[in-house]
TrEMBL record:
Entry-linked InterPro entries: AAA+_ATPase, ABC_transporter-like_ATP-bd, ABC_transporter-like_CS, ABC_transporter_ATP-bind, P-loop_NTPase
Domain ABC transporter: 4-235
GO terms of molecular function: ATP binding; ATP hydrolysis activity
The protein's name: Spermidine/putrescine ABC transporter ATP-binding protein
Organism: Mesobacillus subterraneus
KW Chaperone (keyword) present: no
Keywords recorded for this protein, A-Z: ATP-binding, Nucleotide-binding, Transport
Length: 258
């Protein structure tokens, strides 16, 4: 049984005067421990699809199953990391990262110790008593990752988490996030506009067509790239070859945009 399965996902947004179909007949599966990316032109429904997987939106048709359960039944097994960190500015870093455990009633001394240790592993020792405004953007995103991992989700969803960061910080975080998720054997889905980021971090890339979003093509990242860090991937000879292949498909899908 696949870890995550999407079958016949279709979604239409309705207003008083119009109906816009965002997704049409998307079926795919994700294996446990796999890192996959949703890539495609703007408006192809990537974030809508991620929101459906997270259970934030009910699809107009089709179903999502996580380990055989509906996403509503498995809602406590998913974690979401967004472009903005959404840390509470009036709470300390320690209070922010422990918030999910506190809300779920699972916070205890051992869990607190584990989460604070993870904060240190992220290179954020001695920041627990600080407030978000005292940290850089890259540090805040690392805090957001710790907060997401604290509740031990089985599925982690990343919605363009690095897009607001400068390029150097972005590259460092790609490595850090990738290594962390491999260490914790997490399954992850990344939504991105960045071809290079998708190649560097993923095991597979799902390329979506323009609205209404359909599954256009699946790219399997070669094993040589999956076994090295994202930074090393960008310097590997296979990287440029794969980049050009995906770029050509995007040009085919929406030539005026690329």
């Amino acid at each position: 049984m696949d870890f995550l399965t999407l079958t016949g996902i279709h979604h239409t947004y309705f207003t008083k005067t119009s109906a816009v179909t965002a997704l049409n007949d998307i079926s795919l599966d994700v294996r446990e421990g796999e890192f996959v990316s949703f890539l495609g032109p703007s408006g192809c429904g990537k974030t809508t699809l991620l929101s459906i997987i997270a259970g934030l939106i009910d699809p107009s048709d089709g179903q999502v199953k996580l380990e055989g359960k509906t996403v509503k039944q498995a809602s406590n097994q998913t974690g979401y990391m967004l472009q903005q960190d959404y840390l509470f500015p009036w709470k300390t870093i320690e209070e922010n990262i422990l918030l999910g455990l506190k809300i779920s009633g699972t916070l205890n001394a051992q869990k607190k110790e584990e989460v604070l240790a993870l904060l240190e592993q992220m290179g954020l020792e001695n920041v627990g008593k600080l407030y978000p405004k005292q940290l850089s953007g890259g540090m805040r995103q690392r805090v957001a990752l710790v907060r997401t991992l604290a509740t031990e989700p089985k599925l982690l969803m990343l919605d363009e988490p690095f897009s607001a960061l400068d390029y150097l910080t972005k590259l460092k975080l790609e490595n850090l996030v990738s290594n962390t998720l491999k260490t914790f054997e997490k399954t992850a889905i990344l939504v991105t506009h960045d071809i290079g980021e998708a190649i560097a971090m993923s095991d597979r890339i799902f390329l979506l067509s323009p609205r209404p979003g359909r599954l256009h093509q699946v790219f399997l990242i070669p094993e040589e790239l999956r076994n090295i860090s994202p930074f090393e991937v960008r310097n590997h000879p296979l990287y440029n070859e794969l980049f050009q292949s995906i770029w050509k498909e995007l040009e085919y899908l929406e030539p005026e945009e690329y």
